């Protein structure tokens, strides 16, 4: 006779060793006990089925432990449906039940019962039988289903869950946690920050003219494009709303790119094709997908992506984005290799906001709630990225590649960084600041800083991330050196085709003399940038002045 063990979570320590037996549905033998770790491991190893019908949160670990403990058993998980749990959550007491079957007699196949967003997920829900914990018949049926499931189905479900449990490690959780903590700090700082002054154009131009090795980092969307609300555009012209370089910029860009003392990088969230289409004709660097892909327009695309980037979540998010796109007229989503963006800027904004709020609920509590992703909310968009995908995180690798490729031997002495970047990407502004972000940003302080070299004891070890050559979307094998995650100062050895190494003679890649740094946020007021420009029209006008002054 199959037997099932049921655990009750209780706070009463006296009942820890209490074990009772009773019968349910005639054929299943149930024992009742409390959740004690040793029991979980023991029964996790010997049981065929775990039934976790938590009515409030708090039992995730038990499900994970059960999956992790399973060896040859390939045990079946039965979980309560998220939606049902949420519905009753607010008035329920803290009751949880776990039932572990401890018998081997399992035969016939079964059909999974998954909720709307669990189907394609990597979460445990996708490998479990989901039940409404309030429906006794359904729960009983699910136990029978689990006990009589075919070995193949069992194996398949177990494999799914096991991969999820073993890849969503404590390390991964910690990285996500720290990343979210960083975001909170950034947002809090932005809230209390004063509104920066407008870009001092004359000063920016005169310093540009005096410098000899300049770097211009330019965003694309809403920085170098025409403003969205240009008169004459209809709201339903989504196809024609594809990002297009501002037509008045062509001449200025050509002039700036042809100056040998100037390196231009377009650093954008857009994909490779969009950047190719818009900037292919200029002699500049293109950094697509927030810098995860890099290309000198004369060369091939390569990837700067960290090797361990976990992209398992992408199908689940796509599923959610498709669902909301279908239900939100004139919204659309972009699927990139490292992120997905759902955009409702052409939709009814109020409705879009409501939908975005709903979508965020799904993303935060649904199948990707444990995935290594950052959910970034824009004013008219929701973006999901792999943790670690930010413009600031990519910029050191990009700089490394530029320094190597140009065989640079003198420091960059002028940086202009302009963009309509999301808060998450504002780390690119702070990257060039002489003070560490955690010290707080202070223009006054930073102006005192000349040489940007950190004391050697604060310099991290010279670990060189690999830049992989990726012709178009495929990843190739060629390796390029890059700067380490060191910020303003980088040890970089220049040599043709060699990887840089810490042992070589080092020099400061950046020497901005404090004042030769112009970070500028476009169309924002709360920002970590030093200065502001109102719109992409102002960017165009400024770049035209810069180009005119230098020719
Ligand atoms: O990376 P870029 O090409 O320079 O573009 C900057 C960001 O543009 C998009 O976000 C902006 O537009 C969204 C509406 O379409 C809005 O919700 C968001 O607040 C804006 O920042 C894009 O979604 C981001 O990925 C880009 O980084």
Automatic annotation (TrEMBL):
Basic and acidic residues: compositionally biased ranges: 448-460
InterPro entries: Glyco_trans_20, HAD-like_sf, HAD_sf, Trehalose_PPase
GO biological process, alphabetically ordered: trehalose biosynthetic process
Single annotated GO MF: trehalose-phosphatase activity
Region entry Disordered, spans: 448-497
Gene Ontology annotations for the cellular component aspect, listed alphabetically: cytosol
Family: In the N-terminal section; belongs to the glycosyltransferase 20 family.
NCBIfam families according to UniProt: T6PP
Protein name, entry field: Trehalose-phosphatase
Native organism taxonomy: Eukaryota, Viridiplantae, Streptophyta, Embryophyta, Tracheophyta
């Amino acid at each position: 006779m199959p037997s099932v063990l049921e655990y009750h979570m209780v706070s009463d320590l006296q009942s820890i060793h209490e074990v009772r037996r009773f019968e349910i549905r005639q054929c299943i033998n149930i024992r009742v006990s409390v959740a004690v770790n040793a029991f979980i491991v023991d029964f996790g190893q010997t049981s065929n089925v775990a039934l976790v019908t938590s009515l409030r949160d708090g039992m995730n670990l038990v499900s994970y432990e059960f999956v992790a403990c399973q060896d040859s058993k390939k045990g079946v998980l039965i979980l309560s449906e998220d939606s049902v749990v949420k519905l009753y959550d607010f008035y329920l007491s803290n009751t949880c039940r776990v039932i572990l079957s401890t018998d081997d007699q399992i035969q016939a196949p079964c059909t999974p019962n998954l909720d709307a967003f669990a189907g394609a997920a990597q979460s445990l829900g996708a490998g479990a039988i989901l039940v409404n914990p309030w429906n006794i018949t359904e729960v009983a049926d699910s136990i029978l289903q689990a006990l009589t499931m075919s070995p193949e189905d069992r194996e398949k479900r177990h494999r799914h869950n096991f991969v999820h449990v073993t890849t969503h490690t404590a390390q991964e959780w910690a990285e996500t946690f720290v990343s979210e903590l960083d975001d909170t700090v950034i947002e809090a700082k932005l809230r209390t920050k004063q509104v920066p002054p407008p870009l001092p154009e004359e000063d920016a131009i005169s310093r540009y003219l005096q410098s000899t090795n300049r770097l211009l980092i330019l965003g694309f969307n809403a920085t170098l494009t025409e403003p969205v609300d240009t008169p004459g555009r209809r709201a339903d012209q989504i196809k024609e709303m594809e990002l297009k370089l501002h037509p008045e910029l062509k001449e200025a860009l050509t002039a700036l790119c042809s100056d040998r003392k100037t390196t231009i990088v377009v650093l954008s969230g857009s994909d490779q094709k969009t950047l190719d289409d818009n900037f292919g004709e200029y002699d500049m660097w293109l950094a697509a997908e927030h810098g995860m892909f890099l290309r000198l327009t004369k060369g091939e695309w390569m990837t700067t992506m960290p090797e361990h980037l976990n992209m398992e979540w992408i199908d689940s998010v796509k599923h959610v984005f498709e669902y909301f796109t279908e239900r939100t007229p004139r919204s659309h989503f972009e699927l990139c290799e490292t992120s997905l963006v759902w955009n409702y800027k052409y939709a009814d904004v109020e409705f879009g906001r409501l939908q975005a709020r709903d979508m965020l609920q799904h993303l935060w509590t649904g199948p990707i709630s444990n995935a290594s992703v950052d959910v970034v909310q824009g004013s008219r968009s929701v973006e999901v990225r792999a943790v670690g995908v930010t413009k600031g995180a990519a910029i050191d690798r990009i700089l490394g590649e530029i320094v190597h490729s140009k065989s640079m031997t003198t420091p960059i002495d002028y940086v202009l960084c302009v963009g309509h970047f999301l808060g998450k990407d504002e780390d690119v502004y702070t990257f060039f600041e002489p003070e560490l972000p955690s010290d707080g940003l202070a223009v006054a302080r930073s102006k005192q800083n000349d040489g940007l070299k950190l004391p050697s004891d604060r310099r991290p070890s010279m670990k060189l991330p690999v830049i992989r050559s990726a012709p178009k979307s495929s990843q190739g094998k060629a390796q390029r050196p890059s700067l380490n995650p060191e910020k303003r100062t980088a040890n970089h050895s220049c040599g043709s085709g060699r990887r840089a190494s810490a042992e070589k003679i080092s020099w400061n890649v950046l020497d901005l003399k404090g004042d030769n740094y112009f970070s500028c946020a476009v169309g924002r007021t709360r920002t970590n940038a030093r200065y502001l420009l109102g719109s992409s029209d102002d960017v165009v006008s400024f770049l035209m002045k810069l180009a005119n002054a230098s020719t």
